[in-house]
Amino acid sequence: MICAHVVDVGLKKVPGADAVTVSLNPGSATVKLKSGNMVRMPQLWEIIRKNGFTPKTTRIVARGQAQGERFTVGGTNETFVLKADPRNPAALEELKKHDGQTVTLNGTLMPQKDVKKPVPLIVEGVELK
Fold this sequence. Notes:
Elements: H1 4-12, E1 17-23, E2 28-33, H2 41-50, E3 58-67, E4 70-73, E5 79-84, H3 90-96, E6 102-109, E7 121-127
Parallel strand pairs: 5-7
Antiparallel strand pairs: 1-2, 3-4, 3-6, 4-5, 6-7
């Protein structure tokens, strides 16, 4: 059975999942994770793939540290190479000003067909908290 329900059930089983909403019409899933979770994006993408769907653009809000051209998510230590958003290149420049500091980053990831290939994090905005 391939439907939004199986994706919903699969995502709700993820340790650290606080709230999950899956909608078939726009083809979207929203997963809110509890603070301190250890979930990495490839885990979520794999659940979507195993249930017959292809993960698409993934919007994230993550707390962590920028170090040069990389961002490390707090808790999981998952590291992404940073890339400027063509619509807002100033966001990456702003992030670079806070090198080594803990920030909240808004961005997007584009999952690759080759799951072993690194996925750049497109920086859309940064907040100091």
